[in-house]
Specification:
This protein is an alpha+beta fold. Helices cover 60% and strands 8% of the residues. The protein folds into 2 domains: 128 residues, Glutaredoxin (3-Layer(aba) Sandwich), CATH 3.40.30.10; 97 residues. The protein is globular, with a radius of gyration of 22 Å.
């Protein structure tokens, strides 16, 4: 990123094919994390099992370590996952030796493919490799609570289960909540993109000024910070008006998901 970006960062908003030289396919089994993405997808397709991709920074990410300590290392989780999931680790550690060299570029491609921007992110795929849900970490996560989240996501992806466990009114409410919250999320993305576009615009102006009139750069930097700060403040105020309704709808959706998981 160009030189100006660090100055404004504080005000900014918040299945690839296997490589020819990849290591030989690992012995992959349900419920056991593997780094062999291709072999895991093949197993899932053959067994008709869903896949969970664990995008993680295994040796530095505190939330990732918490989830592995409180959930994935526990026998309750291992026993359940052994008959219900194929697990894949997509790791971005500080110690690169923890990931086979041939998997490192592949992991970056998968991160880009799924648009993962934070760790941990748990991406759930159908046996055919199509994404249907994403989950995250929780400070109070337990094997039972995370299993319930996965079960709810699986049930949510099955129209027959949804129809059997939810009333027609609840199904209609679910669809309405999702539509409203997706609209709010889309506006939040637009706000973020507007900030990024404004930063890029000012970077171009500053580069031009440096070439034509270096003495004007300091004043332009100050003006840029003021303009970007004002834009961010206006966007935050707009989104704060949406926040209470968004959170209430999310709570109701979690209630409906809990009903699906039973």
């Amino acid at each position: 990123m160009k030189r100006f970006l660090p100055l404004v960062a504080s005000v900014a908003l918040f299945v690839a094919p296997a490589l020819a030289d990849e290591p030989a396919a690992a012995v992959v089994q349900p419920g056991v994390f593997t780094q062999d993405h291709a072999a895991a997808l093949a197993l899932a397709a053959g067994r008709g099992l869903p896949v969970m991709l664990d995008f993680t920074g295994s040796d530095w990410c505190g939330w990732c370590k918490l989830m592995h300590r409180q959930v994935f290392s526990q026998e309750e989780w291992k026993a359940w996952a052994a008959t219900n999931l194929v697990l894949v680790t997509i790791d971005f550690p500080s110690d690169e030796s923890l990931v086979p060299e041939a998997y490192r570029d592949r992991n970056l491609k998968l991160q880009e493919q799924y648009g993962v921007q934070g760790y941990p992110t748990y991406v759930l795929l159908t046996p055919a490799g199509e994404e249907f849900a994403r989950l995250g970490a929780s400070r109070d996560a337990t094997p039972a609570s995370f299993i319930a989240e996965v079960k709810a996501a699986l049930a949510e992806n099955d129209p027959a289960v949804r129809a059997a466990k939810l009333t027609p009114e609840e199904l209609a409410e679910w669809d309405e909540i999702e539509a409203k919250n997706k609209a709010v999320e889309a506006r939040a993305r637009e706000a973020r993109d507007a900030i990024e576009a404004k930063i890029a615009e000012w970077e171009r102006k500053l580069d031009d000024a440096k070439a034509s009139d270096p003495s004007s750069v300091a004043a332009l930097q100050s003006k840029a910070l003021d303009e970007i700060s004002a834009l961010q403040k206006a966007q935050r105020k707009e989104m704060e008006g949406e926040a209470e309704g968004f959170r209430a709808r999310r709570r109701r959706l979690e209630e409906l998901r809990a009903k699906l998981a039973k």
